[in-house]
Amino acid sequence: MTKEKIVKSDSEWREQLSADRYRVLRQHGTEPAGTSPLNYEKRSGEFLCAGCGAELFESGTKYESGSGWPSFYAPMPDAVATTTDTSHGMVRTEVNCARCGGHLGHVFPDGPRPTGERYCINGAALDFKPKS
Ligand code: FE
């Protein structure tokens, strides 16, 4: 995947994205648990960044965490970047799209094998591309 970063102004993102997607991707929002149709997506394919189309997660790494958000045990190589998020009185590791910087969700150390990580991702930050 291309390493070229995508940089847009706030007004460009606001124009491009739906209100729900803008709030998650560009304002660090969190969708209400259990609301994303992608919670129930079980087909083979890839989950793409809803901001820039970058390939972020493969269906083979998706699992049912019970959290109410789409969950994966690993991202695709070099697809995401992480930062420390100290908002809301917690210390969490925030997960962002490596290409456009969009906020995706958080990663927690309570996932399944083989990584032990749980990428807890807002469905609003993703598009699903079924394998053709
Ligand atoms: Fe992106």
Write a concise keyword list for the protein shown above.
single chain, 132 residues, 6-stranded antiparallel sheet, 3-stranded antiparallel sheet, globular, binds fe (iii) ion
Could you please describe the fold and organization of this structure?
The protein has 132 residues and is an alpha+beta fold. The chain contains two helices and nine strands, in the order ααβββββββββ. It has helices at residues 10-16, 19-27, and strands at 45-49, 55-58, 62-63, 71-72, 80-85, 92-97, 103-108, 118-121, 126-130. A six-stranded antiparallel sheet has the order 3-4-8-7-6-5. A three-stranded antiparallel sheet has the order 2-1-9, with no helix packed on it. A hairpin with a 7-residue loop joins strand 3 (62-63) and strand 4 (71-72). Bound molecules: fe (iii) ion.
Put the structure in a nutshell.
12% of the residues lie in helices and 30% in strands.
Unreliable stretches covering 5 or more consecutive residues? none
DSSP strand count: 9
Supply the helix-strand structural class. Answer: alpha+beta
Order of helices and strands: HHEEEEEEEEE
Share of β-strand residues: 25-35%
* Oligomeric nature of the chains: single chain
What's the SSE blueprint?
Layout: H1 10-16, H2 19-27, E1 45-49, E2 55-58, E3 62-63, E4 71-72, E5 80-85, E6 92-97, E7 103-108, E8 118-121, E9 126-130
Bound molecules: fe (iii) ion (FE).
